[in-house]
């Protein structure tokens, strides 16, 4: 437990200093006592009050969930109850939005790559059709081996488009950020 609160204190101190604010200013923004901020940063407060952590998270643009984990709260403490929005900070919402944004752009990129492959395959098939039509007009024979070779070139091109989208690219989902629809 001591390691977690020390890590918690370190993260809060670094974030506060990065923002260029004092402990007094942080305590004012988080609506808490300055001495409590000092105790949390020094690792002397074993498990800070959730409301204090929420105030700190909002003031420093940190994840409330991450702060709670570092403070030693378990998953039940973090996710118990119907209204979890009080246990999420703006940073948690931003993290979720960034996750969806990245997923959206990954999907768009995947679609564009598949589209390029589709055009390449279409070109190969059109070339094969042209070759067959020309042979028919010129009354020439095209061997089955020649047609087979062209088709064998096309199959590997199609294969990536038949694969499912990589599930590891799916966005993370924090059910507490989005209320259930009735």
Explain what you see.
- With 182 residues, this protein is mostly helical.
- It has two domains: 86 residues, lambda repressor-like DNA-binding domains (434 Repressor (Amino-terminal Domain)), CATH 1.10.260.40; 82 residues.
- Helices cover 68% and strands 0% of the residues.
- Helix 1 packs across helix 3, helix 2 packs across helix 3 and helix 7 runs antiparallel to helix 8.
- It is rod-shaped and about 95 Å long.
Salient structural properties:
182 residues, mainly alpha, 434 Repressor (Amino-terminal Domain), 2 domains, 8 helices
Write the layout of secondary structure elements.
Blueprint: H1 2-19, H2 23-29, H3 34-42, H4 50-60, H5 64-70, H6 75-79, H7 90-137, H8 144-162
Question: TL;DR?
Answer:
By secondary structure, the protein is mainly α. 68% of the residues lie in helices and 0% in strands.
**CATH class category name of the largest domain:** Mainly Alpha
Oligomer: single chain
Which fold does the CATH topology of the largest domain refer to? 434 Repressor (Amino-terminal Domain)
Q: How far apart, in Å, are the first and last alpha carbons?
A: 40 Å
Radius of gyration: 29 Å
Which structural class do you get from the secondary structure elements? mainly alpha
Helix content: 55-70%
User: What count of structural domains?
Assistant: 2
Poorly predicted ranges: none
Order of helices and strands: HHHHHHHH
Strand tally: 0
Count of helix runs: 8
In CATH, the architecture of the largest domain is Orthogonal Bundle
How does the overall form come out from the CA principal axes? Answer: rod-shaped
CATH homologous superfamily caption of the largest domain: lambda repressor-like DNA-binding domains
The largest sheet is: none
Arithmetic mean of pLDDT: 83
How large a portion of the residues is in β-strands, by DSSP E?
under 5%
